[in-house]
Design goal:
Blueprint (H helix, E strand, L loop, with lengths): L19 H30 L4 H28 L2 H24 L5 H23 L1 H5 L5 H30 L1 H20 L13 H14 L1 H32 L3 H24 L5 H9 L3 H8 L4 H29 L2 H16 L2 H11 L5 H20 L2 H5 L4
Helix pairs in contact: 1-6, 1-7, 2-4, 2-8, 2-14, 3-4, 3-7, 4-14, 6-7, 6-10, 6-13, 8-14, 9-12, 9-14, 9-15, 9-16, 10-13, 11-13, 11-16, 12-13, 12-16
Length: 409
């Protein structure tokens, strides 16, 4: 198969789906998403089944998150220097092997917290190389005017299976055990790896400058774009407040003020439905001021935090979750399109990695602050503070002049 490159404008087709290489990429994403949607349920019950509690599960999650942060910048450099399709192949293959190891450990009854954490660490390293390489794939496969539609289509499979995947995963775990669900996730990674290898996308920057030199050039490019670093700084606060409020406090408040797991499951379902609806919005709505839409739409995630903090009825919380999901997906698609249109292909991996590190680096701090604050404040009060942080960061970012300057190409 010949090397796939960015199509010329004169070769534009009516839809990204008319491009065979993009269909292959979309199929790989769909296959992988079916396993990834079930994996969290299976992993949680694999830990619980061995007698582990919140502490054990927290160790496993940390073992998965920290390596991603450590290796993201290196992943960004390699995404600009090497074949992105080969990086995606190796990254998915590595993640599949790690998940297969967990499945075997669970099946034979040897899934200790340490053993699962080692596998989670390997999976986190793989994710650090997959994310930067995937950032620029769409811009290589479709014309620039089709990037938003392509980014939205890539989001459809993952958002769709988020609605039914956890339910299916729960049934599989209940009927056959977590090992089968984890094994399926490993198989989907392997299939996706083979599909992605077939894209054969070459790297952009010839090797020779060194990793440190490439990082310096990438950092200079990151600093020179006000819209990029201001959004990343705002995201540092927004992402930490959102995850600390939604993932950590959300289930606890639902357990104390609503109907527990049943109510929280409905909230998560409503949020996933909103994500899918947001993807469909992006398929038909093409705003000119993409960056402004990205900043404002993303602020919708404060709504379910505020609704839970004010102890509104479950109906209002569900409505807020749907709106939050719609806004978040519109923001994600808009951001991906802005990055691909405004940044040269040979810099996209590194600049995307700097953004990803900046947005994630404060997540552990957010969890720690919430743990400390919970000794003095109620969960509802902290949720309102988290919502206020998201609102304040959004308003500050909306005041940046470059946010208004960035428009659809």
């Amino acid at each position: 198969m010949t090397t796939t490159t960015r199509p010329e404008h004169g070769a534009s087709v009516a839809s990204p789906l008319r491009t065979p290489a993009f269909r292959r990429f979309l199929l790989a994403h769909l296959v992988s998403a079916t396993g990834s949607a079930m994996a969290p349920v299976a992993l949680a019950f694999a830990v619980i089944g061995r007698g582990g509690g919140a502490q054990s599960l927290g160790i496993v999650l940390a073992a998965n998150t920290v390596p991603t942060l450590v290796f993201l910048l290196l992943g960004g450099v390699l995404a600009d220097r090497m074949s992105r399709s080969r990086i995606l192949f190796l990254g998915n293959l590595g993640a599949g092997l790690a998940q297969a190891a967990v499945a075997v450990l669970v099946a034979v009854g040897a899934a200790t917290t340490l053993a699962i954490s080692v596998c989670a660490c390997l999976s986190g390293v793989s994710a650090a190389f997959i994310a930067p390489a995937a950032q620029g794939i769409a811009s290589r496969l479709v014309p620039r005017e089709q990037l938003q539609q392509a980014n939205a289509l890539v989001r459809v499979p993952g958002n769709a299976v988020k609605i039914i995947g956890p339910v299916v995963g729960g049934f599989v775990v209940a009927l056959a055990g977590p090992a089968w669900a984890l094994g399926w996730d490993a198989a989907t990674f392997a299939v996706a790896a083979l599909l992605l290898l077939g894209l054969r996308l070459a790297g952009s920057v010839p090797s020779g400058g060194g990793v440190v030199g490439d990082l310096r050039v990438g950092w200079a490019g990151f600093r020179s774009r006000t819209w990029l670093w201001s959004y990343t700084v705002a995201g540092t606060a927004v992402v930490a407040a959102w995850l600390a409020g939604y993932q950590l406090l959300g289930p606890l408040v639902a357990d104390g003020s609503y109907a527990g797991a049943r109510s929280w499951g409905m909230v998560q379902g409503a949020f996933a439905a909103g994500l899918l609806a947001g993807t469909l919005v992006c398929l038909v709505w093409k705003p000119r001021r993409l960056m402004l839409v990205c900043v404002l739409a993303g602020s919708g995630i404060m709504l379910p935090l505020a609704a839970l903090g004010l102890e509104l009825s479950l109906a209002w919380v569900l409505a807020a979750a749907v709106v939050a999901g719609i806004g978040l997906d519109v923001a994600i698609v808009s951001w991906s399109t802005v990055m691909q249109q405004q940044i040269r292909d040979e810099e996209l991996g590194r600049l995307g990695a700097f953004n990803a590190v900046g947005e994630r680096i404060a997540i552990p701090i957010g969890y720690l602050l919430v743990a400390v604050a919970s000794k003095h404040w109620t969960g509802q009060h902290i949720l309102l503070v988290c919502a206020g942080i998201i609102l304040a960061a959004t308003l500050a970012n909306a005041c940046v002049r470059d946010v208004y300057r960035i428009r659809r190409v």
